[in-house]
Amino acid sequence: MNLTALYKGHFIDTPTPGQFRVRKDAIAIVEDGKLLSLEREVPAQFSSLPVKDSGAGVVIPSFIDLHVHAPQHMQMGVGLTLGLLDWLENHTFPRESRFADEAYARSLYPLFAAELLRQGSLRSVVYGTVHLESTLILAQALEKAGLIAFVGKVNMDRNAPDDLKETSEASFKGSEEFCRRLAGQGRVRPIVTPRFAPSCTKKLMKELGRLSQRLNLPVQSHLAETLTEAQWVSQLFPESRSYTDVYNDCGLLGPASLMAHAIFLNDEEINLIMERESTLVHCPSANINLGSGIMPLGRYLDRGVNLGLGSDVGAGHTLAMYRSVVQAVQASTLLRILRPEENHRAVTLSEAFYLATMGNGKFFTRQGWVPCGAFEPGMSFDALAIDMGLPEAVDLSPLNQLERFLYAGDDRHIKTRILAGRQL
Ligand SMILES: [Zn+2]
């Protein structure tokens, strides 16, 4: 295969977090799904090919959601003022238990995949439920929508309602079978998914750690989202030095590990995360909705921690990652305003945009995918064409158009979605 396509537009990306890179009126030459180069003019050897022109709008890397719960899609916005543990008990667990019914999964998961696509999140890392077959249905729905994703069957062998609680043995076997059935080089691949330390025994987590190492699979979980939960973990695992150390003890902390939230970490824990090269996933929408706290994102960025960004639907109330970008800026700004004595800094819009594209893309690259998240030669051509449809007289620069889209745009302004060179 040697398919070449040409796209013309104002290309904006963030190969580094510090600033947006704008290339006006450029021509992207895309071959076999990868960007060959960005040129000023159409090179002579391609002059016979048609050029797809995105017009006055801008072209940006498509979004990546590094933390999202598919079964919670339909409960977005429901009961969010309860706080994490009550919200789980009253809304999330009862809903998740309904996915025992495969017909229910078959009716809802395609809607989740369609919404990811509509919002321009063409890659994602997704939680299913404890149910093996339903979570495979979720993987099929994402595959069918043409999306790239990691999907995890959730593990819970304690502190869960009876209809979601598995035996340690069944939980492990279920994950092993899930990973085996989803293994391969397809667009949707498995990820080991202990829900969070309070709902898993150490025995189960150790087995899952060994499974991820044996099959060379990534891991996702939650870490230090609220103080109440962190205190609970210290009671459940008195022998561990910290919450982070619980995962480390179980072999679940490595370069392929995603830990969502990580709001309440001490210095020793941050050092351990950095030593293990694990990635912390910031989910500002969920953190504010549930009143959990605010991750010191600027501080983590300055220390060089691997970071990503997630919608965390349904605690987050939208699958639109452009909203998460803005929420990351807003949350860090609030932290600076509210706790001046701690010298927090607000992150910039380019830093937050970087996380949702290039930063999150690094996780896929580390798992062996073609690099993605920016418009660099050799990278997967993952792109969204954005057009705010403003009157010509408004005359916004390409960068101002992107800013306006991130803050005030929506899916109606996403005109084209391209993943690995393929228009979806
Ligand atoms: Zn979550």
Give structural notes.
This protein has 424 residues and is of the alpha/beta class. It has 2 domains: 4-62 and 374-423, Urease, subunit C, domain 1; 63-366, Metal-dependent hydrolases (TIM Barrel, Alpha-Beta Barrel), CATH 3.20.20.140. Helix content is 38%, strand content 22%. Strand 16 and strand 17 form a beta hairpin. The longest helix is centred in the C-terminal third of the chain and has 18 residues, at 321-338. The mean pLDDT is 96. Bound molecules: zinc ion (ZN). Zinc ion binds at residues 67, 69, 222, 260, 312.
Which labels suit this protein?
alpha/beta; Urease, subunit C, domain 1; TIM Barrel; seven-stranded mixed sheet; four-stranded parallel sheet; 22% strand; binds zinc ion
Helix- and strand-based class?
alpha/beta
In CATH terms, what is the architecture of the largest domain?
A: Alpha-Beta Barrel
Q: How much strand?
A: 15-25%
Terminal Cα span: 19 Å
- The sequence of SSEs as H and E is EEEEEHHEHEEHEEHEHHEHEHHEHHEHEE
Helix content: 25-40%
Short structural description:
Helices cover 38% and strands 22% of the residues. The chain is of the alpha/beta class and 424 residues long.
Strand and helix map with partners:
Blueprint lengths: L3 E10 L7 E11 L2 E6 L11 E11 L1 E7 L14 H14 L4 H17 L2 E7 L4 H13 L3 E5 L1 E2 L12 H15 L5 E3 L2 E2 L7 H14 L3 E5 L3 H10 L6 H7 L7 E5 L5 H10 L2 E4 L1 H6 L7 H7 L2 E4 L11 H18 L10 H18 L16 E4 L11 H11 L5 E6 L2 E2 L1
Parallel strand pairs: 1-4, 5-6, 6-7, 7-9, 8-10, 11-12, 12-13, 13-14
Antiparallel strand pairs: 1-2, 2-3, 4-15, 15-16, 16-17
Helix pairs in contact: 2-3, 3-4, 4-5, 11-12
The structure holds zinc ion.
